[in-house]
Write a structure and sequence with these properties.
The protein is an alpha/beta fold. The protein folds into 2 domains: about 1-30 and about 190-420, Glycoside hydrolase/deacetylase (TIM Barrel); about 50-185, no CATH class. It contains 8 helices and 29 strands. The protein has helices at about 1-10, 210-225, 230-240, 260-270, 305-310, 340-355, 370-375, 410-420; strands spanning about 15, 25-30, 50-60, 65-70, 70-80, 85, 90, 95-100, 100-105, 110-120, 125-130, 135-140, 145-150, 155-160, 160-165, 165-170, 175-180, 185, 190-195, 195-200, 210, 230, 245, 250-255, 275-280, 315-320, 360, 380-385, 405. It has a 7-stranded antiparallel sheet with strand order 7-8-9-4-5-13-12, with no helix packed on it. The relative contact order is 0.15. Pfam families: Polysacc_deac_1. It comes from Sporosarcina quadrami.
Length: about 425
C-alpha cells in the first residue's frame, strides 16, 4: 500500500492559496484541467444534418420560451415561422429541448407536422455565455439569415459548439447561431467556502475563521445586489448544461460541521433568505449529546445530528467523509494513503447519515485519482477543492474551485470575486 501511495503522490502537486494564510496543508490535486471537454466536431462527420421528426411545431406568431423551476421563467422568445421539434405536449404547453434541458412554449396558433429540419449531430459540453442584452439567435452562421429565437438578457446559457465568429446552441433540434461579440463568455459561478465563525472581539486567529461582523456584511451585500443562492445540485445541473441561470448567482458553502455555524451563520443566512451546502464530518456528530451551549472562546464544537435536523430550512448537508478528516505526521490527509475501495467505504458511511448529499468537499482540499474514483462510486456528483477560482464547465466536476473566506479577506476582495471581476492565472 505504501508503494501505491507514493506512486499516487507523483501524480499530484501542491497548491497554496496566494495572499492568505491558512492553517491547512498544501492542496493536492490532479491536472487542473482534468476532464476538460472541447466540443470539436469529428472531421468525418458533419455537425448539422437534415433529420425527420414526428412532431415539428411551426408557430404563426412569436411566443415566449419558459424554463420550469419552482415556477415558469421566461428565458427567450421563439420566432414565428420557425420550425422546432417537440417532445411532449399537454393542454397548455408544448415541451421541447433546449440543449440538455426541457423548456416550454405556451400553445398558440400554429401547425404540428412530420417534417425534416436541420439538427446537430453532437451535443457536447462546451461552455456557457452571458447575455447582457436581448440576444438574437440566427438559423445560420450568417447575420443576414432569419432569426430563430431571441434570448433574455442577464442569463447564463450553455454553448454546445463554436464556429469561427459564432457560438452554437440548440432549440427543438435546431442549431442556433449567436455572434460572439453580442455576448460574453461566462467565466463561471462564484463559490464561497467558510469554516469557523466568532465575533471579531473574540477572534484568536484569522486562519480558517471569519468574524460574525464580516459575514453579516457580506451576506447583506449579496442581498442588496439581488444575488440568489444555489444548491450543489443546481451547480451540477449548470455545469452539465442542464440549467439556465440568471447572472447574479452564488454558492455559499461551509466545511467541517462546526457548531459556530448554528450559532451565527444560520440566523444570518435565514435573515437574508439564503441557503447553503454544509459539508459534514459524520464521525464528529456524536462528540456531544443533547443540547450544546456554544462557547466562542472554548475548544471547537461540532454539530450533532439533532442540530442538522433543526437547520434543514437553510443548510443542505453534504459529504466531507466520515472519518478521513485527519492528517498524518507528514501533513497529508489520511485518505491519500488509502485505496479506492477503502475511501468508498468511508464515503458510504458518511452518506448513510447524509442521504441527500450530492457533493463532497475533500478533507483539507487534498485528493487524488483514487479519491475521485471513490466519490464517483459512491454516487457523488461534485468534488469541491480549495483551489481558488470560479466553478466552470472547463474543469472536471470533481475539481470544482472555491474562494476561501477568512478574516484575512477584505470586503473589497469579496465583492470583486462575487461580482465576477477577479481574474485567475
Amino acid at each position: 500500500m505504501k508503494k501505491r501511495w507514493i506512486l499516487g503522490l507523483l501524480f499530484v502537486s501542491a497548491f497554496v492559496f496566494i495572499g492568505m494564510k491558512w492553517d491547512l496543508p498544501n492542496t493536492f490535486l490532479l491536472n487542473e484541467h482534468l476532464g476538460k471537454v472541447f466540443a470539436q466536431s469529428a472531421e468525418d462527420e458533419p455537425l448539422v444534418v437534415q433529420r425527420e421528426f414526428e412532431k415539428v411545431l411551426t408557430l404563426q406568431h412569436e411566443q415566449p420560451i419558459y424554463m420550469k423551476t419552482e415556477r415558469f421563467i421566461q428565458i427567450g422568445e421563439l420566432q414565428a415561422d420557425q420550425s422546432v421539434a417537440i417532445i411532449e405536449e399537454d393542454e397548455d404547453y408544448y415541451e421541447l429541448r433546449f440543449g440538455k434541458m426541457n423548456v416550454y412554449v405556451r400553445k398558440a396558433e400554429g401547425t404540428i407536422e412530420k417534417k425534416k429540419i436541420p439538427t446537430l449531430t453532437q451535443m457536447k459540453r462546451y461552455g456557457a455565455m452571458k447575455t447582457f442584452q436581448t440576444t438574437t439567435v440566427h438559423e445560420k452562421a450568417d447575420s443576414q439569415s432569419a432569426v430563430l429565437l431571441k434570448l433574455e438578457e442577464n442569463y447564463r446559457f450553455p454553448i454546445l459548439h463554436e464556429e469561427e465568429d459564432w457560438y452554437i446552441i440548440e432549440l427543438g433540434g435546431r442549431p442556433g447561431y449567436i455572434q460572439k461579440h453580442s455576448v460574453e463568455l461566462d467565466k463561471g459561478l462564484p463559490v464561497l467556502v467558510y469554516h469557523h465563525m466568532v465575533p471579531r472581539d473574540l477572534m484568536k486567529s484569522a486562519a480558517s475563521t471569519v468574524s460574525v461582523e464580516a459575514f453579516d456584511e457580506q451576506m447583506a451585500y449579496l442581498n442588496d445586489e439581488q444575488f440568489k443562492s444555489l444548491s450543489a445540485q443546481q451547480l451540477y445541473d449548470y455545469l452539465e448544461g442542464r440549467l439556465v441561470l440568471p447572472d447574479k448567482m452564488v454558492l455559499i458553502t461551509f466545511d467541517d460541521g462546526l457548531l459556530s455555524a448554528k450559532e451565527y451563520a444560520y440566523p444570518i443566512l435565514k435573515k437574508y433568505g439564503f441557503t447553503a451546502p454544509h459539508h459534514i464530518i459524520t464521525s464528529r456528530t456524536h462528540k456531544a449529546e443533547g443540547a450544546q451551549q456554544f462557547d466562542a472562546e472554548g475548544p471547537i464544537q461540532y454539530l450533532t445530528m439533532s442540530d442538522l435536523k433543526e437547520m434543514q430550512d437553510v443548510f443542505q448537508f453534504e459529504a466531507h467523509t466520515d472519518d478521513l478528516h485527519t492528517l498524518t505526521d507528514r501533513k497529508y490527509g489520511v485518505g491519500l494513503a488509502l485505496q479506492r475501495d477503502e475511501i468508498r467505504a468511508d464515503l458510504q458511511a458518511n452518506l448513510a447519515q447524509l442521504p441527500n448529499a450530492v457533493a463532497l468537499a475533500y478533507p483539507y482540499g487534498q485528493y487524488n485519482e483514487e479519491f475521485i474514483a471513490a466519490a464517483k462510486d459512491a454516487g457523488l456528483l461534485i468534488g469541491f477543492t480549495i483551489i481558488e477560482g470560479y466553478a466552470n464547465m472547463n474543469d472536471s466536476n470533481y475539481e470544482v474551485r472555491r474562494f476561501g473566506m477568512t478574516e484575512n479577506r477584505s470586503f473589497e476582495q469579496f465583492a470583486k470575486y462575487v461580482d465576477g471581476n477577479t481574474s485567475w492565472q
